[in-house]
Amino acid sequence: MSGPSLPAEAAPDRIAAPVSDALLERMMTLHPKVIDLSLDRMHRLLAALDHPERRLPPVIHIAGTNGKGSTLAMLRAGLEGAGTRVHAYTSPHLARFHERIRLAGEIIPEPALAGVLDRCVAANGPDPITYFEATTAAALLAMAEAPADWALLEVGLGGRLDATNVVERPALTIITPVDLDHQSYLGDTLGAIAGEKAGILKRGVTCIVGPQKDEALRVIEDRAARVGAPLLVHGQHWHAAEERGRLIVQDETGLVDLPLPRLVGPHQVGNAGMAVVALRALGFGAEASEAAVTRAEWPARMERLTAGPLVDLAGSCELWLDGGHNPAAGEVVAASLRALPPRPVHLICGMLNTKDIAGYLRPLAGVAESLTGVSIPGESATIPAEETAERARAVGLTADIADGVEAAVAAIARAHPGARILICGSLYLAGHVKRVNG
């Protein structure tokens, strides 16, 4: 988003390779002192780079509060399953900044990343620019100069003033479920937040609208009517549901019967529906739809860890990882846990102080037997482990603390062999877990 400092969940990588690390640190020093909500800085830098946003393959632009990454991952799997080459830009990353940029399916290599970052730093000069604006420009530059058939862009924050919202005419847009998050940046009501998300709508460009609450849907439909954007709305123009262990998606072109999504959780049915309807709107057939649901990978979203030092510490326990961090994500995680084969559930949780901790934990109180609070290593905005435990007790969870994730996993494994351990609460914590677990 142009203007305010990014929330800590999207801060720069700390373990990137030396050249790109130095360039990313340089970009942080250019952050504007006065906040203004506009895309002026982004447009200025893109003009200095000869407008890479105008040289991209056909773009699919994805906004929303929850499900953006999973929907993008399924859409990418579907497009690649149909034999096309796909660029993708996502945020934040888990272990390395490079994860944010995929060129024709592959994570951008260090020399290419360092090259586009260097060109962006040179083109921008000493002028103020936010970290996300500068790195988004670098991603657009990299994608404009590498051959591909499609480019998938995930909104970083909001939509209307997000740095990705510079493509004048995408091939398609998607708005995933909208909920309360980042209220200090986007507004304190669902309608206000939906208005920011709907800022990606473009005249004449179809938008796939995922499952929405009524207040959010009204705002999206009103914005679409004003700008002249056709909508394909969940519950009106398309439906997705699980029936007898299969995924059934029906839209205005017919019905498709597919395997259930590979990604874990009941919420993935709706995300898969958005991806499948998008593929069908673009003219792709059943092969792409099946690839979307069977081949997608999206780390740290109800991900089962099956190897590594932490898995060894867990012993007979299952070890899971999820980076969701808002109340809607708490609901989704709770539903996902209920859908798994029964096992006692024990949480290891670390969160940032910008989040609604009670709102996130409250749904989990009904499915977990205990919570162990941890502080997120290296994060100044982390909530201390003691405070996380206090907040957990306030919503009805039995809670304790540990010095770190490793100690928490080992303690739970000793006390509750065969349990299900979920590490949760922050993408920053998830990134730490990925690095620790190799």
Automatic annotation (TrEMBL):
Domain annotation Mur ligase C-terminal: ranges: 317-426
Alphabetical keyword list: ATP-binding, Folate biosynthesis, Ligase, Magnesium, Metal-binding, Nucleotide-binding
Alphabetized Pfam families for the sequence: Mur_ligase_C (PF02875), Mur_ligase_M (PF08245)
Endpoints of the signal sequence: none
Catalytic reactions on record: 10-formyltetrahydrofolyl-(gamma-L-Glu)(n) + L-glutamate + ATP = 10-formyltetrahydrofolyl-(gamma-L-Glu)(n+1) + ADP + phosphate + H(+); 7,8-dihydropteroate + L-glutamate + ATP = 7,8-dihydrofolate + ADP + phosphate + H(+); (6S)-5,6,7,8-tetrahydrofolyl-(gamma-L-Glu)(n) + L-glutamate + ATP = (6S)-5,6,7,8-tetrahydrofolyl-(gamma-L-Glu)(n+1) + ADP + phosphate + H(+); (6R)-5,10-methylenetetrahydrofolyl-(gamma-L-Glu)(n) + L-glutamate + ATP = (6R)-5,10-methylenetetrahydrofolyl-(gamma-L-Glu)(n+1) + ADP + phosphate + H(+)
Domain Mur ligase central: from-to ranges: 62-278
Record GO biological process: folic acid biosynthetic process; tetrahydrofolate biosynthetic process
Any single Gene Ontology cellular-component annotation: cytoplasm
Gene Ontology terms, MF aspect: ATP binding; dihydrofolate synthase activity; metal ion binding; tetrahydrofolylpolyglutamate synthase activity
Names of required cofactors: Mg(2+)
Pathway listed: Cofactor biosynthesis; tetrahydrofolate biosynthesis; 7,8-dihydrofolate from 2-amino-4-hydroxy-6-hydroxymethyl-7,8-dihydropteridine diphosphate and 4-aminobenzoate: step 2/2; Cofactor biosynthesis; tetrahydrofolylpolyglutamate biosynthesis
Enzyme Commission identifier(s): 6.3.2.12, 6.3.2.17
Enzyme class: ligase
Domain of life: Bacteria
Role description: Functions in two distinct reactions of the de novo folate biosynthetic pathway. Catalyzes the addition of a glutamate residue to dihydropteroate (7,8-dihydropteroate or H2Pte) to form dihydrofolate (7,8-dihydrofolate monoglutamate or H2Pte-Glu). Also catalyzes successive additions of L-glutamate to tetrahydrofolate or 10-formyltetrahydrofolate or 5,10-methylenetetrahydrofolate, leading to folylpolyglutamate derivatives.
Family listed: Belongs to the folylpolyglutamate synthase family.
Protein's recorded name: Dihydrofolate synthase/folylpolyglutamate synthase
Species assigned in the record: Wenxinia saemankumensis
